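Anyone up for a design puzzle?
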């Protein structure tokens, strides 16, 4: 074989493979052969018709959970990114109120977790207000350990419980201050 001809053969093989892949794509999505439908890229049941401005839109396209480090109520960069998206969405949809539900699953007694969960909810509320969401549409409530995502002892699991959930409401409920 002449010098450099190995590279030429590799180039021809690569071109042939790419042409074959292109041919498979030309007729539509690859289906795995035969009559197998392409379900990988099909809309998930119940989410094909998510209406802009709906609760589903908020949950799927914005995100309603903000997470915290253990024992803390400070907003990190990731939390602020989520809250920035929430603020944009809430400003665009003034028909919605938001109940900010703080949760904690941290070492300490029940009173300490209640205080921490309330501080987390209030930190989220303060940030959203600073981003232009009217305070009259928001209220914060701490739930301490009352509503865990999962009951567990591993750090990876308990971290899921250190959160604030932004729950959309059409009107304020009994937990909202007067």
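Challenge accepted. My sequence:
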């Amino acid at each position: 074989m002449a010098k450099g001809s190995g590279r030429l053969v590799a180039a021809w093989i690569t071109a042939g493979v790419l042409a074959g892949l292109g041919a498979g794509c030309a007729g539509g999505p690859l289906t795995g052969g035969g009559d197998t439908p392409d379900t990988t890229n099909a809309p998930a049941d119940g989410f094909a018709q998510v209406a802009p401005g709906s609760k589903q839109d908020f949950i799927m396209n914005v995100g309603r959970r903000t997470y915290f480090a253990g024992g803390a109520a400070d907003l990190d960069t990731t939390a602020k990114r989520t809250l920035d998206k929430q603020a944009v969405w809430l400003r665009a949809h003034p028909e919605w109120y938001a109940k900010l539900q703080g949760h904690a699953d941290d070492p300490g007694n029940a009173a300490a977790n209640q205080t921490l969960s309330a501080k987390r909810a209030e930190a989220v509320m303060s940030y959203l207000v600073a981003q232009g969401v009217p305070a009259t549409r928001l209220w914060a409530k701490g739930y301490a350990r009352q509503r865990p995502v999962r009951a567990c002892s591993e750090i990876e699991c308990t971290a899921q419980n250190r959160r604030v959930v932004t729950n959309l409401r059409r009107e304020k409920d009994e937990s909202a201050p007067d």
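A detail worth pointing out: The first strand starts at residue 65 and ends at 67.
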